[in-house]
Amino acid sequence: MNGWRIPKLTRRTFTTGATSIALATIASPTVVRSQGMTKIKITQPSDSLSYMSIYVARARGLFEKAGIDLEVVITRGDGPDVQALMAGEVEFVATPPHHLYTLVLQGRKLLGICGILGRCGINLVIEKEVGKARNVREDSPIGDKLKALEGLTIGCSAPGSLTYNIAQYYIRRAGLKPQVDVKVVPAGTGAAAIAAMKNGIVNAYAFSSPLTDQFVNSGLADWLINNTRGQDPELKEFLHAVIYVRPDYLAANEDVVRRLVGAIVESSSWIRESSIDDVARVLRPFFSRLDEPVFMSALANVREAVIPDGRMTAAGSDAYQTVLLDSGHLKERVPFDTVFTNEYLPGRA
User: How many structural domains does the chain have?
Assistant: First the structure.
């Protein structure tokens, strides 16, 4: 299978992730460990606002309320998180769903049981002066934005990543040829990405919040396509992040699955119903290193993409698979019901 290969998770890799989250928790809201509760581990590929439903549930004690003593393991990479699940090191994983598709085509199966983020989380920004020269703004029609891609050099995190695939998808959708009419180059994340644009190595970037918000808030770039705000109609419904579980664990622990999913859905619903200031107060301790304007911008963006009832849709899955098929990282479309189920959401008992 081309792309999306799950690397082998070593004990050192897993332990490093566990240590990272343990250190991060020191500066996070205190979570009281209770006796007699169901101990559960869940992985995330990164500390990201994409998983705000989990952070908010932790901070508001919703897992404890559901009788779950939750440990979050940050694996610092997409792939080791899913490998930990398959190896039985953890019970759940929160991550994008591409592994669900590739694994089932390899004869292995995991199940998506709860949606977290229902819009594409990869946004495009364009260097401010380049955007002005091409007369495109955040409120320009999507067709004008796609035409403006010609001749650009778009930065991304790494070849084969979702950031890379989204950039390639937009180039092809504009009727242009990747690496000929528009270049896509790996330019890293964080300070490296900012430096790449400052130094003219790239003049656009495909990435998620808060990096894209940092570009904009620094005055270096403007929004081109803000997908978390639903600015691209074709990716407005996009199943970007979900909870996975192993089918064997699900069969033996249905009650635990329902309790965990119920806590996450309660959190997601609260996020969408509450004021942005209330959500910010709960989340801020987890992201204390972000500058306030960047944090608030990223929070406002990503909050719009949170799925309030956890329900996953075939349309959201199809949109994600279209990007993977277009980039060659998926060889055939996987039916929604093969790898997703909404049966364990609240009210579906």
Answer: 2
Q: Which domain holds residue 313?
A: 11-119+238-339
Identity of the amino acid at 272: R
- pLDDT tens-digit profile of 283-310? 999 999 999 999 999 999 999 999 999 9
Do residue 190 and residue 246 come from a single domain?
no
CB 117 within 8 A of CB 305: yes
Boundary-marking domain end, from 189, 210, 235: 235
Domain stop point among 208, 235, 262? 235
CATH code where residue 304 lies = 3.40.190.10
pLDDT number for residue 13: 41
Asked whether the predicted pLDDT for residue 18 surpasses 70, the reply is no
pLDDT tens string 182-199? 999 999 888 899 999 999
Query: Is the pLDDT score of 28 beyond 50?
Result: no
* DSSP states along 40-93: EEEEESSS-GGGHHHHHHHHTTHHHHTTEEEEEEE-SSTTHHHHHHHTTS-SEE
Q: Could you tell me if 115 and 245 lie in one domain? A: yes
- 190 and 62 within one domain: no
List the strands of the sheet with 92-95, edge to edge: 68-74, 38-44, 92-95, 241-245, 111-117
136-141: long-range contacts, CB 8 A cutoff, minimum separation 24: 136/224, 137/222, 138/222, 138/223, 138/224, 138/226, 138/231
Residues in a beta bridge with 341: none
Under DSSP, the state recorded for 300 is H
- N-to-C CA span, the chain: 37
